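Lecture notes, unit on binding sites. The following record was shown on slide 14. It pairs a sequence with iron/sulfur cluster.
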Amino acid sequence: MSRTFVGWPAFPRAAAAATQDMQLRSNVTRATGTIRGKRAKLVTERPDWEDLRDSAAALKDEVLAHLDRYLLQAEEQVTAAGGTVHWARDAAEANRIVTELVRATGEREIVKVKSMLTEEIGLDNALEAAGISARETDLAAAIVQLGDDLPSHVVVPALHRNRGEIRDVFVREMGRHGRPAPQGLTDEPAQLAEAARLHLREKFLKAKVAVSGANFLVAETGTVVVVESEGNGRMCLTLADTLISVVGLEKAVPTWRDLEVFLQLLARNATGERMAPYTTTFTGVTPGDGPQRFHLVLVDNGRTRALADRVGRQALRCIRCGACMNICPVYERTGGHAYGSVYPGPIGAILNPLLKGPDDPQTASLPYASSLCGACNEVCPVRIRFTDVLLKLRHEVAEGDAKVKHPVEKAALDAVGAVMEHPAAWNAAVRAAGRVGPLMPRKRLPGPLRGWTDTRNVPEIPKESFRTWWKRTDGGTK
Ligand code: SF4
């Protein structure tokens, strides 16, 4: 079975371990720094960059407000073009549909092109349980799969690996899954790319069934759009007899004209390129050209739950460019695995709890995986206000199910809330704090408060409050 994030520790534990891994931190810092620099240069070339961001946010909001209409329009168009549309409420249903579709072809090995959604729903393991092997063909996703690893970034899933580590994975694993790595393979990028090309080419030419994700779904024509850098996606979308595209409900865009806005934003913001090297569009079935059977599986898996959240629904605007993780100081120190999801970084900190609900023990702490510096707000091409959503989700955790918070913390916060509501009580508490302040331990607080001082200094409590000082000195004049 492939590794998944199921059972992964919650962020505080996973991050504590990840921050100790100096190799990981160095790999992530180097990679995110490079992409950040390229992006910053490229976006300044566009005088209309901020207008494009406004348009993209407005278009996504329009789709989310009328999702039913656009999805039904897409279904009608796909069907008219000879494809079949399937609707999946959750991961189990999506996996069952895809597994049955592959089974019906009689194939035992299929190819996949990078789809975070299929990672989210655990499709590889569902297929494996049915005796079907799914091989990743996006280079970074293939590195992750060959290394029995997990993705750590939405655009560069193997960002946490350096060239030497990738070489070792190729030499060790390629031969077990097909064509082995060439003799004497070094960690030169050109050599690594050639080794991957030879290994994957064999898979493309053999596979009769391909599973893809999609960056966008154009509702007016039912067209699946895949944006990528290597051309492997195009091979998947065109060479197989049967194509199964597994797509989240939120990927719809109304028209081709609207798609243009997103295509201008995506590559610049994701990888610092003026345009993506390969943008492949696919509509239904064309006799004698490309896959002769096309299935579109539209997956909810928590998206309608997120849509119901008036503040949080903006997370569904995300076009997975990865810029928010490239700029995030928390992500830079922990890497992506600590988030326990295929969606790491700032978008993961809001999207995962929105998809799973506030009571999920693995994702409940994610809204706290942020310094609230707001750097992500500034780079998001669809203007997601991360800080608004993070604060809203933190509020839900604080007010929510007692299982996800410590009872002592709740009692302490309730007591502080009660005191703050009454000025006389508050002033008395401040005076008392000034008197006991010198007795406080300087390094670590005792008992259940110790956790708070694991990562913080104990603040020095002033002998008198500002108000008392103001009164005593007549505003600093005495
Ligand atoms: S949330 Fe915004 S910045 Fe982050 S991956 Fe999505 S579109 Fe990109």
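Take-home: The chain has 22 helices and ten strands.
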